[in-house]
Amino acid sequence: MFIQGIQANSYVLFSEMFIPKYRSYVGTMYEPFWALGVIWLALIAWLIKSWRWIQLALVLPTILTLSYIWLLPESLRWLLINGRYEQARTVIKRITKFNKIPVPDFEPENVIIPGISTENPGKRTFYTPFDLIRTPRIRKHAFIAFYIWFATSCVYYGLSLATSGWKGDKYLVFFTGGIGELPAYLLAIYILSRFGRKYPLFVYYLIAGAGCILSVLLPETDKSGKDISIGRTVAGLIGRFAAASTFSGTFLYGAELFPTVVRAMAWGTCAFFGRVGGIVAPQINYAGKASGYTKMPSIVLGSVSFLAAVLVLLLPETRSLRLPDTIEEAEQIDISGGAINNTAAATENEMGIGIYNLGLSPEENLSIKL
């Protein structure tokens, strides 16, 4: 439970620290370390054997995450939105010192963020999960995001469980699975940075779905009786490769579709549905064994993936968009991936989080260079 909290908050924090130009790289670089974790788990399990000591060996390193409190700055977006201006000044000085650039000549109190009241800057508005379904556009994005997270985990773990049943040393099979995922995540860094989120995810889901179904529909022998089951194995591996790649895109969407005021909550809710998918996957496999229809799980998983491919086309492309900060801004993201014109909205520059309206003329607006 606590590990999931670390994952959600750290991913949201990193996404809020970078402008669109670099956000794709930062978001997708997260995933190769998952593959390294799978590889590490296989090695630890092979060396230790006892599940209790395995758990201890895996949990103890997480103590190092306590250092995040001192090593990582708080999100400047979040501080400004919540009126924590003194902390914002400290973060600004820290970041400008690290980047060896002058401290910008502006007062955080003067920053005007659309949708955020300046009358009581220290007064905090509390948001709940109901804010994810209160407004029409965010509601649509939320329901689709919940499903594609569910589909990603369900298909990935369903295929992983299928491959774990392959003949051979169980540790080697698990280790090989991690090795196979690593290039998938590395390739996703380029693909999602170059081609965006929507269409790469669409293709990934199609390939994952096709891989699932072909892994049980391709013939095991040819007309002469020769074993050609390798085709099924290859289809399953390609499907798992594609399913693993969808994680990078869904993680980015979880951060980019929702505004700063509810981003961590939205990402965590998406992760919850992802965990539901991980719970459902083995039940689907069990149902296939219990019913005697062994092809059923792969066909169901393939169908789940195909539906995700269709639904992802209803989401906007967010690759070049700055992160929305408020409910009002998130509501302005349209299906084409552009934000509806808003002269008060912030636009990001090359140096940092953005140029906010400070209540001055356009020529006098100051940029926050971080």
What does this structure look like?
The protein has 370 residues and is mainly α. Helix content is 62%, strand content 0%. The chain has helices at residues 2-17, 20-28, 32-48, 51-59, 68-71, 76-81, 85-99, 136-164, 170-195, 198-217, 230-256, 263-291, 296-312, 327-330. α8 (136-164) runs antiparallel to α11 (230-256), α8 crosses α12 and α10 runs antiparallel to α11. The longest helix is centred in the middle third of the chain and has 29 residues, at 136-164. The protein is globular and about 80 Å long. The model is unreliable at 340-370 (pLDDT under 50).
Characteristics:
370 residues; 0% strand; mainly alpha; disordered C terminus
Helix-residue proportion: 55-70%
Shape: globular
Which structural class best describes the helix and strand composition? mainly alpha
The tally of beta strands, per DSSP, is 0
State the separation between the terminal residues, measured CA to CA.
33 Å
Element order, helices and strands? Answer: HHHHHHHHHHHHHH
Strand-residue proportion: under 5%
Unreliable segments of 5+ consecutive residues: 340-370
Question: If helices are DSSP runs of H or I spanning 4 or more residues, what is the number of helices?
Answer: 14
Mean pLDDT: 81
The whole-angstrom Rg is 23 Å
Largest sheet: none
